[in-house]
Each structure stands twice: as structure tokens, then as C-alpha cells.
Amino acid sequence: MQNVFDVLDNEGVNSSPKLQVELAFREFFNIRLNINEIQFLLRMESPLKSFNNYKFGLRHIEFDEYNSALKLNKKRGFLNFIMVISIIGLLGSSLGIVVMLLFTAAAVLSPVSADIIATGLVGVIGSIVILWVSLDSIRAVNASESLIKDFEAAKTTKEVAQQGAAPDRYSATLHSGR
After folding, report:
1. Is 31 helix (H, G, I), strand (E, B) or coil?
2. What residues in the chain have per-residue pLDDT under 50?
3. Do the domain assignments include residue 92?
4. In this structure, is residue 154 part of a structural domain?
5. Which of 17, 100, 145, 158 holds its CA 20 to 30 A away from the CA of 91?
6. DSSP class of residue 113?
């Protein structure tokens, strides 16, 4: 992180705090966000959770044109379809790994050619790849839905607070003076 600021100091760009913030978030979270998106996510109830959910669910989430709201860039039905296909891939690849490992173990213990053992190992590796892709898709859908749910809950909390009523979870904190 210090290297990033050293470059900024040397090149005279240090006068831009917005750039520093964007570079810092890119360094910490390995995602590129503009300053408005960063400020939006910082206003969420749990900013760290929001940044991580945004990072993992990025392919299914987008900001509106004013960076004031989050929305899914795909229909919920399509996300449910992706989830079902991913779960089927997860279960199928898990079964494939077990079957291919048993097949490879049986091939190793019997006098067969090396081609059959190699086929079993390729099957295991292929099943692991399918398993990884399925888990990544499930994580992306869950992260995007969680972030949208958190945004809608924060929006509802803000609307309730603007109408003069404090939300239940904050009312005890507000009255206790913490």
C-alpha cells in the first residue's frame, strides 16, 4: 500500500484525495470503484460486508446512473436458474470426484495400462474444475442477493427515520446514550 502512495507523492498526484481513496480500496479489496460507489457502500450498515458482497456479486449487480441505488442487472428468475444449475453442477461434480477417485484407485491396484489411470485423473481434475465454477456461481448469486437485501433494509430504515420514528434496533441505543 505504501508503494501506491510513494508513486503518488513522486508524481505530484497526491493532491487528489479522491484518487487516494479509490487506489486504497483497489489495493484492499482488489476491485475498482469510483468515489461515489465507495461512499455509497460506506453508508451501508456493515461496510466491510457490503464491499465483500459487492466484490463477489459484481457480475449480477449494478449502480443506477446517479450511484444512489443498487439493482440486479439480471432478473431474479434468471438468478434462480443459475443457482439451480450451479447446485446440480455442484452435486454432479462431487459425485464425479468420488466415482473417478474410486475408478483411479481401482485402476492403480490392478494391472492395467497407464492410460486408464490418466483417464481417471483427468476425470478428477475436470470434476474439481466444475465444482469450483459451481461454487463460484453460487457465491456470486448469494452475495448479490445479500447486498440488495441489505440495501433495501437500509433504504427502509432511512425512510422510517425520515418519518420521525426510530427503528427498533436503534431506539435502545439512542435512549441509553451510547
Report:
1. coil
2. 165-178
3. yes
4. yes
5. 145
6. -
